[in-house]
Amino acid sequence: MASAWEEVKRLAADFQRAQLTSSVQRLSERNCVEIVKKLLEQKLIEVIFTVDGKEYITPKHLVKEIKDELIVHGGRIYLVELAQLLSVDFSHIEAKASELAKAEQGIKLVLGQLINSDYLNHLAEEIDEKLQQSGQITIGELTKVYDLPADFLEEEVKLRLGTIIHGQADLYDPRTIFTEAYITQHKYHIRGVLSAVTRPIQLTNFINQYGFPERLFHSVIEELIQDNRLTGSVSGGRTERSSYIPSIYAKSQNEWVDSFYTQNGYLEYDSLVRLGIQDPKNHIKKRYKDESLMFLSSGCVGGAIVEQVEAAVDEALTSGSWVDVMPLLPSVFTVEDVQHILNSVLKVKIKQNAPIHTFIHTVVFSDLFFQKCLEPFNALMTEKAKEDVAKGKFLSKLQTTRNSSGKGEKQESKTKEERRKKAAVGKSGGGTQGRETKTKAVKKKYKPGEDSESEEEYIGSSLSKQGELEFLTVVEIEEKLVSLPILHECPEDLLSELAQYIYRPLTKKYQEEVKSAFLSSTAASSSTRKKTHGELQDKLNTMFGEVHMFYKGVKVFQEDIQIQLTKHLLKTICTDMVNTVVNYLAIEHRMYAEKDASISLTSENRLKLISKLPENLKDPLQKLHNSVGGKSVDDFLIQMDNVLGPGVCDMVAKKMDKKRERQLVHTHRQELISQLAECSDPALCLHLAVLLIFQIQTSSMLHASGKFVPQIISFLQLKIPEEVYKVLIDCQENVVKQLTRGSDDEKEEIQARLKELVPRVKEVATTYKRVAEGSA
């Protein structure tokens, strides 16, 4: 064991100096295994384990064995096979093979196999032998035979062409190789056959008929033509439609083409194709390089035909008539061709600012003739505008167009709000009068008659939206045009297109007519609208103040009663205010007439009206609509203040102060006293009396229905004198009995009792004085 250790150490020293002699190749003694492992751990030696783990091999010797195996296998071996033969893991074989391929120029690693230069030279000799036998060979064929990549084979073959491989590659296809004899043989054959041709032939059929190699054929024929060994030309390049045209035939073709062009001034592509010219457009370009030709989809025209069209257009413009260019041009030209010629002529006229109208692609109108076609509609337009305004059609259509005003009116509202803020700067004073002055300054957003220029701008912008009032349909315009004498000889298609073309100008002109008629009809009612606006402003301010005061009365009750009274207030007075505002804005935006201002709106109808209003009004009105269905009067008051202010109603929203509150409380008290004096119904008398006593005792107005009378009396029990409470509770009990008792005797007794109580209730309520808290 000791001697083995010394021997291994000596070997390790040899490894480090890389002086391992060829006599020391394998380490197979079993008693050295542990020693070698220790040396490996200490990195004193570098060896590679075999697959079975019983033997070790140095990396340098592994490379030598790979080279030996490569030579033994004829210069080509797979790495997998090497791994099996040398009993070494494939990763080591792959790594050493890569290093070997990089280090030695004559060895290559291709698709998991090592190949040396000897094998490639032998391969080239085999390829040359096959090439000499067949005359041609392709890289694709070699790839299948030798199972090597096409790019690799192409590169190696190219290196050995002219040396080991006696042949040459095709200029247009480097992967095809021919022998000199093969090329010469086919060159003579091709020259002989084509020399006998007297008319154009398609080269694809020619190649198939005589069995010429297609890869070689095109190169040979181009060389023969270039060397003047063939008198002809190839058209179509190397495509399937390429053809060979003998010079004798080309000469007769050119003579025919020249003769036809000289006589007619144009050339048709199909005619040239029938003549045997496969690429007529390029043929014409080469043949007439110095001619000024216009190339179209079906042919080409010379300058004479273009000048003829230009003269016809000039005559139509000068005489104030129309001209159809189609009959002036050859029948072989399509509508697109005629349009192309016409556009080239009209470009010059347009630059000269000549008014021109083109219809159905080929008909040219002078502007004077076009105006003559519009004149018959003027009288009908004026008459129809007055009729539509009188029947209310314009007002209905204006309502529709307002719904699409959206962004424009939002921007206008924003601009006016900015002007309003600027106007506020520098104004002296405050309070109601100062605010009144500011809001009046912008109160002409959509009041017809207050500012004629603003009204005209409003109607004009509305008419530009979708759904504008129509003058005549396209069909009706066409029927009118048919009856005009100046259009009797026009094509039928022209009348239809002309009707569509003038539809927009007529409609636009009609909008001006109907706007003028409408402004005339609405000028007289401007003062009435001003008065209505002022009255409505006062009414809404009063209702706004009442809601504010009623809500103060609601707050004195407990939470459960507060909620019920709040909902009642929102569903009655607040809802009436919303309906009043929506009706007013609907009239102002011409959704219906002023006589409908008192329309009672359901929640659904109110939403429909709001959705039809301009975009800048929808959001605040939607919030106001939602507030009456909620549980907060504060929210309603905020939304109503926004709606009454600038940008929506443009009204003066008067501030609530102590003086105005006292006025509202006094007015409401007098109304209750007046109603109570005239009332004879016991239930209503009790209701009014309770509200009156509540207001006197709490100094707060209350809006409540008859079903809240018991809760109000219960609230007042500890706040009013006992004798007053007894009168109220006695009247309440009898009113309830009157509604629930069934026998006639009982009803008569109750009615008699109520007859006595009603005067007493009235007296108590009208003479009631506020009692201090706790003294009752």
Automatic annotation (TrEMBL):
Residues 400-459 are annotated as: Disordered. InterPro entries: Ufl1, Ufl1-like_C, Ufl1_dom, Ufl1_N. Residues 533-655 form the E3 UFM1-protein ligase 1-like domain. Keywords: Transferase, Ubl conjugation pathway. Belongs to the UFL1 family. E3 UFM1-protein ligase that mediates ufmylation of target proteins. This is E3 UFM1-protein ligase 1 homolog. It comes from Limulus polyphemus. The lineage of its organism: Eukaryota, Metazoa, Ecdysozoa, Arthropoda, Chelicerata. The gene is LOC106462802.
